[in-house]
Every structure is written in C-alpha cells, then in structure tokens.
Design goal:
The complex is a heterodimer of chains A (273) and B (438). By secondary structure, chain A is an alpha/beta fold. Chain A has 11 helices and 10 strands. In chain A, the strands form 2 sheets. A 6-stranded mixed sheet of chain A has the order 6-7-8-3-9-10, sandwiched between helices. A 4-stranded antiparallel sheet of chain A has the order 2-1-4-5. Chain B starts with a helix and ends with a helix. Classes of the chains: A alpha/beta (273), B mainly alpha (438). The complex binds adenosine-5'-diphosphate and magnesium ion. Chain B: Keywords: Cell membrane, Membrane, Transmembrane, Transmembrane helix, Transport.
C-alpha cells in the first residue's frame, strides 16, 4: 500500500490538475480504482471546470473509461470494482452514504461509446429518464421535455415527424445524438461521454462535435477520446492518462503545443498509442 | 493459369500451396462429410416418417365411431314410478336398455325374438346406449310419449367389423359376431341406419371398460389442470430465480453450488421426481392421491430447471449496453430489470417456458408414481379430484388388447402430438414475433 502511494506521487508529481480560481464543478482527490486485486487507477487528482469541455486522452487501457465511470458511479455496477479517494460534485461527496446514486446519475448524464438507444420509440427513449425520476407533471409537459431535449441535441428537425418510430431505426450518428438527448432529458449538470464518436463516420462525428460545442454553454462535459484531433477541437482542458496514472493536465492548447512530460510528448507525437 | 498460381504460391521450402493432390483430398473429405450429414438426416427422417405413418394409419379410425339410428318409443308408462308420477328419480331409473333393444327389434322387423336373439340384438348395441337415451330425455322432457330418432353407439365389435378389422370370412364359431348379427348389420346399413360418424365421444367420455365409451375427457381436463399449475408455479418461481441469479446474486461459492445443482436438477430422471412427489406431497403433506394438483406440482419441480436455464440464457443475451443505458439515466437495478431486461428477454423466456410445458405435457413416469393411473369416469372439477393425464391415458389404453383400445391408443397419441406441435409452433411463432435487433 505504501509502495503504491510513493510510486504514485513520484509518477504524478509534475501535474496534479488542481486548478485555482473559480470553483470547479467536479473535483477528484486521490482516486484509486481496483478491479479485484488489480489496480487500474493510481491517485488521480483532477478538477473539472464548470461549463467547459474536459478531454481525457491516453493509450487504450490506461483507465480513461474507468475514471469517467467513477464520476457517475457506474463502477458500482461492477461487483469486483472498488473505488477509494474522494470525488465531489459541487462540493458534495458523491460516494457519501447519504447520496442517492439514482439521483446522481440523473445529475450526471452519460453517453456511451456505441450508441445504445432502448429498442423503443424515439419518444420513449427520451421520456424514460424523466418518467422514472418523477420529473413529469403531465402529458403535455412530457411532450415539451422530449421536444426540448431533442432540440438541444440538434435532432428535433430530423425526427419530429417520427418520434413514435423506433430509435434503433435511426442512423448511427442520429442514434448517438438521441442518446445525448436522452441524457439531457433528466436535466443533468454534467455530461460524461466515453468515446462518443468512435463508432461514427466523419460527418456524424462533425455533427456531434458541433453539438458538444453548443452544449458547453449550459453543461459541464467530460469526454474520453482516442482522437487527439478531436480533443483539440472540442476541449478547453485536456488530461493525459498513462497506465493508470494521470500524467499531465492543463489547457488543451498547452498540452498539445507545449507538453511538459516526456510521455505526453511521445503520445502526442504519435510515438505510441 | 495453374502454372502462374503454382509459381505464385510456391513456398520457401519448395512445397507448393494448392498442391492438386492435397486439394483433391480436401474436396473429397468435404464431400464425405456432407454425405455423412445427409445420410444421418435421411435416417432420422426415415424413422420419423415410419413413426408418423404407423401412428396415423392405426390411429385415424379412432376419430370415427359406428353409430346406429334407432326410433325409440318413449312410452310414458316406462317413466312412471309406483305412484304414476314422472320424477327426476323415475327418469333416472327407467329401463333404457330395454327401450333401445325394443327399438332395434322393431327396426329390424322381429316380431317375437327368442332369448338368444334378444342377446344378439343387445350385442349390437353399446352398453353406453342407456346413458345416451337418458341424456336425450333429461335435456328435453317433452319427448316423453313420442317416438324419437336417436343415434346411439354400436357395440365395439360392430365398430371393428365396419372398420374392417373383423373378417367376415372367418368361421362363425371363431367370430365375435354371428351370421344372424351380420345379416342385421347389413340390413341396417342398407337402410342407412348404421354408419361411421365423427367420434365426439373420444373427447367427452372418461374411463370405460368398453372401447366405444372410453374417451380422453378426464385425461384432457387433468392435463389442462397440470399445465395450468406448472404455468402458475414453475414459471414465476423459475423466472424470479433466474433473474436473481443473473442480476443480483453475488458470485461466490454458494451461488456456484446453486448453479451446478440447477444444472444437475435438469438431468435428474423424471421418475425420481415422482418418488419425491409421493414422499413429500402425498405422504408428508397429505395431499390426495391421483389428484392433478400433485401431478402439477411434481411436473412444476421437473420443469423448474428448464425454465431457469432458458430464462438465464435469455437474460444473458440482452446486450449489456442496454443495461448501461438504463443505469446511465438513473434507473435502479430493479427498474433496469423490469423495464428493459425482462421485456427484451421475454421471447426467450416464453420459448423456454413453452418447451418446459411441452416436456411436462408428455411426461408419464412421475405421474404413475403418484397414482394418476386411476380409472376415472367423472370429470374432475377441481385439481383435487382424481384425474389422469394424456400420456398416462395412452399408457393405460396401450395395455388393453381389444381392437377398439388399440386404435384409441394411437388416436390419443395423435391428439397428444397435435398439442405438442401446436405448442412448439407457438414457441417458434412467439420467438419470431418478438425477435428484435439492437
Ligand atoms: N470490468 C472490468 N473488470 C476488470 N478489469 C477491468 C474492467 N474494466 C476495465 N478493466 C481494466 O482496467 C484498465 C483500464 O481500463 P479502461 O478504463 O477501460 O481503459 P481505457 O478506457 O482507457 O481504454 C484496463 O487494464 C482494463 O483491463
Ligand atoms: Mg475505454
């Protein structure tokens, strides 16, 4: 245990990712994650600024998804997974015993790598979250929620005549935007995206990126991406992970133009990954 | 062409890829494999065809039964009791056998038959005719005092003759019907009073020692009760157990043991379940013997592993991305299960359940252990009444030598197979209908 701690500080020494100034939306302190006996994350410290896009980059298997899934406690669903450390959302400990994980997941929406709409109508896909959280007053209110969510996800124009057709009948890019709309419908503050474009073609990717850009006005977004170009295009802050350690974090421009760590440099130059 | 290929694929050590001899061997092996497969399929199909041919050719006649049309004179005097009143009781005890025989006698124009002739006349009619005539009167009393035409059952021997399984040319002393009776039968046929009709009795009669009045009604009702009990007991318990094991149970030694034992349970011979039912439900809990309730419970135990295994497979087949999606928008584990996983697993669960029910419907051995082999004449009205089951009825009829029972054995087999086919078809249909892409 001690060994891990010392090596961890050594590894993450250059950057802690702790910002000063405006209070961050999410703060992670000394987050370690274990899958059974295997440790997947080592003492990650990261602040996620409000109403901006934070990109998590790094070679595959380095723990980006694992970290992301800590933020809405999706890791709770994996029996062997254990999380230590402290993660706060608006200064509230999300691993606190009194905190309702169901409510947390309404506040922290998630979009997955592969578009995963429910095999139901577009309408029901969006309506599901608000319904189970009791956010719906009546039928017209629900219709309103569905419309504004689709509107915000830039999908309303394309689907307004077929909201009662199955969501699985949409194209891949539309499905992913439907999933974003579904996440928005529970009025979250934070949206987590785990490689949301990796299953999409370039045009659909461009649309989603554009959407991320717009959503930034009202939401705090954390996005995992394997594409450095994408991280550069959409994010204001970038965190580079490497085999379980947060190696370097900073303004996106700085990370890409002037990386401090050797490993970050190598990764960005495309020497591994 | 061949040469370019050969040079192109020449390996470093000089051996050539696509060596013609090797290719030839490979094709030959492939061809042989196909031939074996087709051969196996052919043999299986052949036996299936033989099976169906023998069942249907021997069994289809069970769906027809020889009936005789009698003009029965219902004289008021025959229904009056000692006080000259016609009551329910007096109707019940009237001598219908004599009325039927008299009717047959006058139909055949016999003035004053001798004793043996009377016996022979009686021998043309089924013993069930008295009930048939009584039913006619009990359903409509106004016919008393009239002469009414009634179609009644011919005796089993007559039926066998009409269906061709008694040879007219065998010497009289070795024939169940004598020459006089044959002459009467021919006369009745000529007058259009004796013919084969659809055998509704097969579906409305209970047990009987006479083939012509033996039917499947009690077995059908018993099997229906048992299927109902299996559906009500095994399905909810099985689905709940499977859902718990798949979605909630921790992975530890205890659940591993449960898992292994469920699989073992599926392989336990069915007779063992019969013994268990006898020991637990009848001897320990004191439930009645021969009752379809006990049969249903035993079959439920037997079907449980099938339902659990099928449901677990169906739940596991639901893509994890759907679960993640539901959990991601804040659904609880229960909501994820009930709103998303179970509805998507439903076709698989239904298919597994129907396959379990089909197994249960055809199961015989455990039912023999718990006394469902009873001779039951009256319809069971509750699952606590004595009953039999379809396959048990087949088993019981199969042990009778009379021609009428042989054809009923096969006829009942056809009925059972029809149920199984319909249920299997329903399983296939449901699977197709609910099959979804994601
Ligand atoms: N459910 C799991 N069970 C066990 N190990 C896991 C599980 N999920 C991820 N891991 C391990 O954790 C490490 C980080 O994985 P992940 O966070 O998915 O990486 P990334 O998203 O950066 O590619 C990997 O070594 C992976 O093998
Ligand atoms: Mg990942």
């Amino acid at each position: 245990m001690e060994q891990i701690a010392t090596s961890a500080t050594a590894e993450t020494a250059p950057m802690s990712g702790v910002a000063n100034g405006e209070a961050p939306k999410v703060t992670a302190r000394d987050v370690c994650v274990f899958y059974g006996a295997k440790q997947a994350l080592f003492d990650v410290n990261l602040d996620v600024p409000r109403n901006s896009v934070t990109a998590l980059i790094g070679p595959s298997g380095c723990g980006k998804s694992t970290f992301l899934r800590c933020l809405n406690r999706m890791n709770d669903t994996i029996p062997i997974c254990r999380v230590t450390g402290k993660i706060e959302l608006d200064e509230q400990d999300i691993y606190d015993r009194d905190l309702d994980v169901v409510e947390l997941r309404a506040r922290v929406g998630m979009v997955f790598q592969k578009p995963n709409p429910f095999p139901k109508s577009i309408f029901d896909n969006i309506a599901y979250g608000p319904r189970i959280h009791g956010l719906v007053r009546d039928k017209t209110h629900l219709e309103e929620i569905v419309e504004t969510s689709l509107e915000k996800a830039g999908l309303w124009k394309e689907v307004k005549d077929r909201v009662h057709e199955p969501g699985t009948g949409l194209s891949g890019g539309q499905q992913q935007r439907l999933c974003i709309a579904r996440a928005i419908a529970t009025t979250p503050d934070v949206i987590l995206m785990d490689e949301p474009c990796s299953a999409l073609d370039p045009i659909a990717t461009a649309k989603v990126e554009e959407l991320i850009h717009e959503l930034r006005q009202n939401y705090t977004i954390v996005i995992v991406t394997h594409s450095m170009q994408q991280a550069r295009r959409v994010s204001q802050k970038t965190a580079f992970f490497h085999i379980g350690y947060l190696v370097e974090v900073g303004d996106t421009e700085q990370i890409f133009e002037n990386p401090q760590d050797k490993r970050t440099q190598d990764y960005i130059m495309g020497r591994f990954g | 062409m061949a040469t370019t290929q050969d040079t192109l694929h020449a390996a470093a050590d000089g051996r050539k890829l696509n060596d013609p001899a090797m290719l030839k061997r490979r094709y030959a092996a492939e061809w042989r494999f196909k031939a074996y497969g087709l051969g196996a399929l052919g043999i299986a199909l052949f036996f299936l065809v033989v099976l169906f041919y023998s069942i249907i050719s021997q069994g289809w006649t069970a769906f027809l039964q020889t009936n005789i049309k009698l003009d029965v004179a219902l004289n008021e005097a025959d229904f009056q009791d000692a006080d000259g009143q016609i009551t329910e009781q007096s109707i019940r005890v009237a001598d219908y056998t004599k009325m039927a025989r008299d009717a047959l006698q006058s139909t055949l124009g016999l003035e004053s038959p001798t004793r043996p002739e009377k016996r022979d006349l009686r021998g043309l009619l089924s013993r069930g005719v008295d009930v048939q005539i009584r039913n006619k009167i009990e359903s409509d009393r106004s016919v008393i005092g009239q002469t009414v035409p009634v179609w009644v059952l011919a005796n089993g021997e007559v039926d066998a003759l009409i269906k061709g399984s008694i040879d007219r040319n065998t010497p009289e002393e070795r024939r169940q019907l004598n020459n006089k009776q044959l002459a009467w039968i021919d006369k009745l046929i000529a007058e259009g009073r004796l013919e084969k009709q659809f055998n509704t009795g097969l579906f409305t009669y209970g047990a009987s020692s006479q083939p012509e009045t033996a039917g499947l009604a009690v077995a059908l009702i018993g099997s229906f009760f048992m299927m109902l009990i299996v559906a009500l007991v095994a399905v909810p318990i099985g689905v709940a157990a499977a859902a718990y094991l798949e979605e909630f149970a921790p992975k530890n030694t205890f659940t591993d043991i449960i898992e292994v034992n469920i699989n073992n349970l599926a392989a336990v011979p069915s007779i063992v379940f019969g013994l268990l039912g006898l020991a637990v439900f009848i001897n320990f809990m004191g439930l009645p013997r021969s009752a379809s309730l006990v049969g249903g419970l035993v079959l439920s135990l037997m079907t449980l592993p099938t339902v659990i295994i099928a449901t677990r497979a169906a739940i596991r087949a639901v893509p994890p991305s759907i679960r993640e999606a539901a959990l991601g928008v804040g659904a609880s584990k229960m909501q994820t299960l009930f709103h998303h996983v179970l509805p998507l697993a439903l076709p698989g669960i239904l298919t597994g359940t129907i396959i379990g029910l089909v197994q249960a419907l055809g199961e015989t051995a455990p039912l023999l252990m718990i006394g469902l082999v009873a001779f039951v004449v009256d319809y069971p009205t509750t699952p606590l009444d004595p009953a039999t089951a379809l396959p048990v009825q087949i088993y019981m009829w199969a042990s009778s030598a009379e021609r009428g029972f042989v054809e009923r054995t096969m006829g009942a087999t056809i009925v059972l197979l029809m149920f199984l086919f319909v249920m299997n078809a329903a399983a296939v249909y449901l699977r197709r209908k609910f099959e979804r892409k994601w």
